[in-house]
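HOLO CASE FILE
Compound: coenzyme A
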Amino acid sequence: MGEPLESCFAPDLLAGRSALVTGGATGIGKEICRVLGQHGARVAMVSRKEENLRAACDELAAEGIDARWFSADVRDAAAVAQVVAGCADAFGRLDVVVNNAAGNFPVPISGLSPNGFKAVVDIDLLGTYNVTKAAFEASLKEHGGQIVNISAPFEMKGASLQAHVAAAKAGVDSLTRTCAVEFGPYGIRVNAVAPGHISGTEGVRRFSEATGADTSDEHRANNPLGVSGHGQDIAYTVLFLCSPAARFISGQVIAVDGGGTADQLKMGLGRV
Ligand code: COA
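Model generated. Tokens follow.
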């Protein structure tokens, strides 16, 4: 795969709506901003590094997307509350929140310090909580909306070199379900998307570096479709979840992984 995919959604699907995407300046987050913007949403990206934010905003603006940026560390609840309120003010309201910001470095437990474990749990899980709570208070509770959390397809399995990430994402999945239950009465749907192997991401680059393996080939063999995904595969899933077509879907974690999660035995049988 890895090839760009033309949208099969109406270009005005999210017209008049506004979205906030954490970690939106790079990688899958930027692709989510692009796809939401291409379908009419105004997008705000929130992350730590101003130079990345400026570059991504300029790039999307050149494509005709109303993109803005706000700088904050998702671990900092006070900064997040300020930025989310500022974003809701700037747009008039917030309709969509995508919790995509994540930290990741592949390391065995033997090489992982308590602070390293905490750094990733704080970014992925506490950060998702901080942004979700701030968005609920600032805007979503008034009129409903959609929250999509970017998780990981670890489910009930372990994941070597990923103790910190797997624990954090298990928490994100749990938070997704609880938020769906508590926020449902406010007209807010909450779901998660769990990406499989997406080519060209920072995470994949770091894995290749850490293991010396060609992770592309390894992952291709490790899902039944035998291919890697593209950032658009995640972005279009987010778009679908934010669309009226998903109006009865909440509290779900959807793996977008070429069937990798379904394949417990990883036997690589090919056609049988
Ligand atoms: N192996 C082992 N420990 C590591 C590590 C690695 N490769 N990288 C960071 N750590 C540890 C640090 O040593 C530190 O622990 P210590 O205080 O006990 O030494 C702890 O993690 C925090 O690191 P620090 O760099 O101070 O934290 P930070 O808050 O600035 O950044 C991350 C943490 C996770 C955001 C940073 O490592 C990072 O940029 N990761 C890449 C982001 C990424 O890949 N995103 C894609 C997600 S799929």
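CASE NOTES: The longest helix spans residues 114-143. The chain has a mean pLDDT of 94.
CLOSED: yes
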